[in-house]
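F.,

This is the one I mentioned.
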């Protein structure tokens, strides 16, 4: 995921795209993966509704540029 991508790119790519809160995205992934009993479904839905489009567009830009 994001942590591995950041590692193999020596932390040089994601900082170029500050429109995404990468630290929070990585943290959310960890919460969903490891603390799923504590996940608030409404909060996850809000994050998806508010941020997934921007994340997808940014990932497309990264792919096009590398």
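My design for it:
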């Amino acid at each position: 995921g994001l942590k591995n991508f950041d590692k193999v790119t020596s932390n040089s790519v994601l900082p170029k795209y500050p429109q995404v809160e990468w630290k929070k995205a990585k943290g959310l992934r960890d919460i969903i993966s490891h603390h799923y009993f504590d996940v608030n479904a409404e909060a996850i839905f809000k994050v998806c509704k508010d941020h997934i489009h921007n994340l997808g567009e940014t990932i497309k830009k990264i792919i096009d540029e590398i």
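Residues 2-65 form one domain.

Talk soon.
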